[in-house]
Amino acid sequence: MKKPLTFKLPKGQCWTIGVPYFWLLLFFALPFAIVLKISLSTAAISIPPYESLFNYADESLQILLNLGNYLLIFDDSLYLYAYLGSLKMAFITTLGCLLIGYPMAYAIARAPKEKQTLLILLVMLPSWTSFLIRVYAWMGILSNNGVINNILLWSGVISEPIQMLNTNFAVYIGIIYSYLPFMILPLYATLSQLDGSLLEAASDLGSRSLNTFWKITLPLSKGGVIAGSMLVFIPVVGEFVIPELLGGPDSLMIGKVLWQEFFNNRDWPVASALAIVMLGLLIIPITLFHRYQSRSMEKEV
């Protein structure tokens, strides 16, 4: 008599595999399913402000899926501009964080070991202050009566205040300042692990500093560049607080539109559809990053 085929994992492996899957199910799959369900419903003046997808009457169950919320997104140019504005803002701020963060991370990684902890602490210290307080501080700095305009007026560089607050320039400054540590930390982790013998060998062979950087340092730090860019780009796409406080009418981002649809218009189905489409846009860079990590791990093995 043949024994039934059974597949049983050791107890330790069950916990190792099961806990991450349970975590993803609880904090990603379940909220995503709820938002997806709302995006397919019809708005209503009720609590909650949408109709149920399921209707049971006369011993029959009907499932009512409203795809009009998604069609509205592609018909209304406002939403398209909001998506493009968010992607443009995220791309420019990610590039700004990379241009500023890479030299800082490189300098920290090349500093003496006893000073690296202090330098990393200086990068992280502003993050310990409330996020809102730091944004409000930038409102004071960039306003017409702020520090920058007062210095320029006092030095005679300008004769009247420059409008910086409530512009895209202020939003870029605020986002780059707020997300810069997320770029520096993964870059520092990668650059501090570079094999110094490679740089020494290149120097002994007559390679100049700039050539060594392009041929050795930058390729070997590609993982940190990608990780830091992902940590900045993804949250900036849905950023709401900084554009709301520092931006003006031209600072149209999808996070701001989501807030208006949820809390001002009370149109939860359209807002949920906007969130689903935004998540779909973010899956592309996340998938590319995952593939890069998988290939890097295969090469290391």
UniProtKB/TrEMBL annotation:
Organism lineage: Bacteria, Pseudomonadati, Pseudomonadota, Gammaproteobacteria, Alteromonadales
Q: According to its record, what are the GO cellular component terms?
A: plasma membrane
Q: Where is the ABC transmembrane type-1 domain?
A: 83-289
Q: Does the keyword Transmembrane apply?
A: yes
- Record's family? Belongs to the binding-protein-dependent transport system permease family. CysTW subfamily.
Entry keyword rRNA processing: no
Q: What is this protein called?
A: Binding-protein-dependent transport systems inner membrane component
Where is the protein found, in the record's own terms?
Cell membrane
> Which keywords fit this entry according to its UniProt record?
Cell membrane, Membrane, Transmembrane, Transmembrane helix, Transport
Transmembrane portions of the chain: 21-47, 80-105, 117-137, 169-189, 223-242, 268-289
